[in-house]
Sequence to fold (546 residues):
Amino acid sequence: MFYYEQKDPIYNALLVFFRTQTVFGLVIKRLEFWVYLALHVVFMTMFYLGGWDTGDLGALQWEAVNATMMFMVFLLTFFNGVCYERYLLLYDHCMEVLDHTTFFVQEIVVSLSPASVELHRIRAVKYIIAMLHIFFVGATGRMKSKADWKQLVDRGLLTMLEAEQLQHYPSQSVETVLVLATWAMQIVDKALQDDAFWHARSQRIAHTHNRLQWHITGVLDGIHKIGDMLALPIPYPYYHAINVVLLFNMMMLCIITASFRTYQTVFPFVISLFFFLGLREVAAALSDPFNSEGSSLPISSFLEYAFDTSVCLLEAFRCGDADEFTRDLLLHTREFTDDQLRHELTDEVLYKQSFDPQMFSPFSWNREMPLNLMTADSRGPQAVLSESRMNPSYDWHTGHGRVVKEEAEEDEDWAPKPKKRSFLAKLCCKRTKEAPRPEEEEKPPELIRSEAKFEHRTEHKAQLQEEIDKGQEQLDKLKSSLAHYMKVGNELGLRVDEVVSLALHKTERPSALKPHQPIPEFISFAEAHRVVADSAVDKRPGDRSV
Fold:
């Protein structure tokens, strides 16, 4: 798509064909242009050499020709207006498809934020981007061979098995997008069955499903509207009438101008051919912007925009807990100050004198896409994306929090700097004292960091207390279970109390703490009996070992 400045001089219109496709290039490629030009030269030569008598053509009044010429101009102008409305409507539907795709990714990032369904998010987004690729590439006449489907596999949007199944799916044109939309919503339904969405205060999964389904339906609706418009071209009787009127007028203009018997009519006739045939070529290009040369839509930019926007949004919120993210944001939210409430947006801030809409327009389809810009980094797009994750409470390089430091330095970085006084102002004017700042802005950074640290420790203490309460509750349950088991064991006549007492008050035996003593020696049975009796007396009560 070619962007231009409407304030450029008129002569740029004659030289711009070096940079883009214009009516000059469209008309010169047509065979009928050279046929009309050759006929005019032949007729003019015949009249000039006397091979064909002009007769009463020399006395022809141009008012008789003006009626047909005006009728032709009206038809061509009206036909161009209809084709341009069709072109704008097709572009609106394309933007509807891209917008719903972006909103689907944004909704799936917000609603399916738990880390347990991260693979579900990635798979559903891949199916949506594959839908757009199949439709837009198929609208230009592709997606017929195996190599076309392999592009989806190479881009990582589909597996080889999925591509083969979609290629053999019985469809008339691009109805395979319905299969991908079904797969995406099935993935969403499977993700909504995760335990993370079934807590006491979780949002209703039906509402999440309906929002995502609405965006999917918007994508399919835009796709089918584009397909329906492409299936209904400009009615042929209308197009045929315009061509017949153009043919007879061009032949009449060719013969009448040739009757002047001068070569000076060649240039005006060529200009007329460029004008009338150019209007018809522009109308034909606008009526089918997917397969035309002059005004084709930037399909490749559409697909790159959808892919890059979706991937960047997924990666930005890939890591981190959403609850922790919002908790940190609310923790460091501050009220508006007086200076902020009195802020004015001046023309110097809003407008830039050297701004060139052709080169720097933020909405241009010719600008480099985000992932293409990342190729300049030697580390690759993955490393760049990992640094752009939207989690201000965590530093992904050092692993430490950085909110407090950033907010403490925020005032110093963004505070309005005092203007430098000129030399004459320093000599003639007294130096004015700066007005004292409000109390809110006089907070030292150390106090801000201390308050944030205190809030963080308070929150950490509350979490520890909650864990202690949970542990105490589990301990009470174990004690009640133990009491029940002891009661049942006593009723059965088992030595439960003794076993529990030994288990609760078990300590290491003295023999285990002392070094190993050698076995006493004896030479008679009486001496052995005495050693055994002495060892039995030394044993502690309750020890049943022999």
